[in-house]
Amino acid sequence: MDQRHSTESVEHKNGEYELIRDAEEPQLGMYDKPLPCFGCGIGWFSFLLGFVFPLMWYYATILYFRNYYQRDPRERAGLAASAIAALVCTIAVIITIAVLIF
Fold this sequence. Notes:
Order of helices and strands: EEHHH
Transmembrane segments: 42-65, 77-101
Organism: Hibiscus sabdariffa (roselle)
Structural class: mainly alpha
Number of strands: 2
Keywords: Membrane, Transmembrane, Transmembrane helix
């Protein structure tokens, strides 16, 4: 296994582990912290909450198009799912209004 691009942990005398960071790749441990919103991220949280409050899909769509996922790439999938849900919701509302008017 290539040791240059991997992180290892070392056990101390008191039984706790410490993460060894790679000197050549300082960003390896950059995304070790959990995501906000109960660990699932803003995108997936907005997607799930959007079934009750559809405006959450539009909020996540705005975040998606403003490249919020550049801060944490793990957010991209949830934000994209919310953007697709907002598109489907918009089309459904337009069709419903068109049927009611005509």
